[in-house]
Amino acid sequence: MAVQPIRLFGDPVLRQRAAEVTTFDRELQRLVQDLTDTMLDAPGAGLAAPQIGVSARVFTWYVDGEVGHLINPTLELSQEIQDGLEGCLSLPELTYDCKRAMSVVAQGFNMHGEPVTINGSELLARAIQHETDHLDGILFIDKLDSDARKAAMRQIRESDWFGDGGQPTIKVSPHRTNGFGF
After folding, report:
1. Over the range 71-99, which residues count as b (16 or more CB within 10 Å of their CB) and which as e?
2. Is residue 25 part of a domain?
3. Residue 172 covered by a domain
4. Straight-line distance from the first to the last Cα atom of the chain, in angstroms, rounded to the nearest whole number
5. Phi (first) and psi of residue 166, to 5 degrees
6. Is 175 annotated as a binding residue?
7. Annotated binding residue at 98?
8. What's residue 137's pLDDT?
9. Which domain holds residue 85?
10. Which residue in the list 27, 122, 131, 158 is annotated as catalytic?
11. Residue 163 in contact with residue 171, Cβ under 8 Å?
């Protein structure tokens, strides 16, 4: 399969709710493989389909040596909270403390349409919540307190990757975007 370009903050596809997956076919399997290849190449702990320009409720993760994926996730979050550093492949070189649930029960499907349940805590729970947020058009900086968010936005504006004149670079996806991607 192939490593794909990762969309960066400012690309509109990152702020849209991704479409539910209804067809479990070879194209979906290729998307999961491309997400996995891209995530491992970056390297990252997770990657959601919108981050490569595809509006589909699909993400992958790589935590504690385990690679996985989930399609059309629904989450049950614990009441216990963790606070820890979080970053994002769409926001290079940015890390901030972010509050998340300590554990999660995630339900969804694998790439073959079979139901799966993932129980995760600590880093896996953080990755699953982070990637599910991407599917809803939410970035981790949206969850920061006001002062941290202002600092993050300042850091983004001053970064080399944000683009000329504050305009992000927008790329074209090699996958079907069903009219939702660019």
Report:
1. bbbebebeeeebeeebbbbbbbebebebe
2. yes
3. no
4. 21
5. 80, 10
6. no
7. no
8. 96
9. 12-162
10. 131
11. no
Neighbouring C-beta atoms of residue 31, cutoff 10 Å: 27
Place of tokens 């660019």: 182
What's the Cα-to-Cα distance from 98 to each of 33, 46, 52, 93, rounded to whole Å? 29, 16, 23, 15
In a domain, 168, yes or no: no
158 flagged as catalytic: no
Q: Where does the pLDDT of residue 171 fall: very low under 50, low under 70, confident under 90, or very high at 90 and above?
A: very low
- For residue range 67-124, list pLDDT tens digits in order: 999 999 999 999 999 999 999 999 998 999 999 999 999 999 999 999 999 999 999 9
Distance CA 159, CA 62 (A): 27
- Any domain includes 40: yes
Q: How confident is the model at residue 167 (pLDDT cuts 50, 70, 90)?
A: very low
